[in-house]
Amino acid sequence: MSLFSGLSRPMKAAGLALVGVAVIAAVIGGITLTSGGGDSDTATPPGTTPTTSDGAPQPSSPAPGSPSASTPPASSAPPSSAPASSAPPASQPGQTGGPGPGQPGGDQQASHKWVTVRVYNNSTIQGLAEQAAKDFRASGWNVSEVKGYPGRLPETVAYYRPGTDEEAAAKALALEFGFRAEPRFEEIKNIGPGVIVILTKDYKANDKDGS
Fold it and tell me: Where does the record place Gly residues bias (predicted)?
């Protein structure tokens, strides 16, 4: 026996309409629930931290310019040490700041003054050899002998043995005191080592003390 048995035809039609409306409403409600449930699974409410599929909080990228943004540290190079200024070497003992031998105003005879000098008087002027020896020593020369010399020579000359240190020393001494330098002559060849200065009267003009 059906639900609508015993009802009139109009009543049956109305009942069927109500049943159809109910079915349609049920279908629409089911569709709405299905679509709404899907949206709830994917939507994230405001203020909620997004999570990954395994439930862990999803890392968020820092905003540009934020303090937490990692900036590579600037390379700090160690300060370079300034090279020490090279000071000029200190003068050695015995050195002077003046011009060296051969330069204007320099002591041109300094490297030869260790050579011994023998001073002989070949004039009639008493004490001429002693005066000359004093002049030579005052200039730094190494006078080892002072005496007279017999005979007569025309002018004051410094004599040396060629090929020895006496040659350079005799020329330097002669240049300093204004007379000539020559190799030794026969009569004085066998005298001991050293420059031999044989004085004549012309040396007085070169007296370093002016006497």
Answer: 95-105
Q: Is residue 202 domain-resident? A: yes
CATH code of 178's domain: 3.30.70.2390
Residue in the block written with tokens 């820092």: 62
In what helix (H) or strand (E) does residue 168 lie, and over which residues does it extend? helix 165-177
Mean residue pLDDT of the chain comes to: 72
- Return contacts of 143-147, CB within 8 angstroms, 24+ apart: 143/116, 143/117, 143/118, 143/119, 144/116, 144/117, 144/118, 144/194, 145/116, 145/118, 145/119, 145/194, 146/118, 146/119, 147/119, 147/120, 147/121
Report residue 114 as tokens.
Answer: 């260790």
The predicted-structure confidence for 74-111, as pLDDT tens digits, reads as follows 555 555 554 444 444 443 433 333 333 333 334 555 68
Task: Name the nearest CA neighbour of 125 among 196, 201, 197.
Answer: 201
Which bin fits 151, alpha (ψ -120 to 50), beta or left (φ > 0)?
left
Alpha carbons 196 and 160: distance in angstroms, whole number? 7
**Residue 53, class by beta-carbon neighbours within 10 Å (0-12 exposed, 13-18 middle, 19+ buried)?**
exposed
Structural domains counted in the chain: 2
Determine how β-strand 195-199 pairs with β-strand 157-160.
Answer: antiparallel
Give per-residue pLDDT as tens, 5-60.
Answer: 555 566 667 767 777 777 787 777 766 666 555 444 444 545 555 555 555 555 55
